Amino acid sequence: MVTTRRTQQERRDRAEAALLNAAAELVVQHGVRSLTLARVGERAGYSRGIVTHHFGSKQALIERLARATQTGFVPGLEDLPPGLDRLLRLINGYLGALGDIGLMHRAFLLLWAEAATASELAPIFRERDEAFRRDLRSDVAAGIADGDVRPDAEPDGVAVAIVGQLRGVGMQLLLDPHTVDTARLSHTVTDQWRRALRAS
């Protein structure tokens, strides 16, 4: 019987994934203020020293968690060129994904909400939201250039409105999941933006 030894990088990646998962669990169960390197290590089955080795500080851990929780929320967009079709697929995919919201995305929404009052989170989530808005602005601008989006559409305003709507739906889902039918809502909201943006 042949056994394959994991490389050092594989062990490192596995430990980091376990630590991030433990951090997400703590955020979901107790909020970001409960997050300490020692508690994350204990939850993941590692020592605090391992957490410090991987992330260095609580702030660095939160930054890494914020990025990890947003990764791959709407798959399949990377291959699409910027424009109205990509924008509508993003909206539809985002709301559809909320219907099966997992631990990491739940943690992201909770961290995002806490960023309004937690000074250590605010810069991280300002940057994440700006990246999201920048992506949306690019889609609107490309749609205008292609002639698919109304020429009077304002990319900055559209981007702010879409991020607010999507994040707001996510927060409502966390607060009262039974009131949000994400499958139905994804079609309604996507159609709303299609009608609002499409060139005549």
UniProtKB/TrEMBL annotation:
Source domain of life: Bacteria
Stored InterPro entries: BetI_C, Homeodomain-like_sf, HTH-type_TetR-like_transc_reg, HTH_TetR, Tet_transcr_reg_TetR-rel_C_sf
SUPFAM superfamilies documented for this protein: Homeodomain-like, Tetracyclin repressor-like, C-terminal domain
Keyword list, A-Z: DNA-binding, Repressor, Transcription, Transcription regulation
PROSITE patterns: HTH_TETR_2
Domain HTH tetR-type, residue spans: 13-73
Binding region for DNA: 36-55
Protein name: TetR family transcriptional regulator
Organism, scientific name: Streptomyces hygroscopicus
Gene name linked to the record: acrR
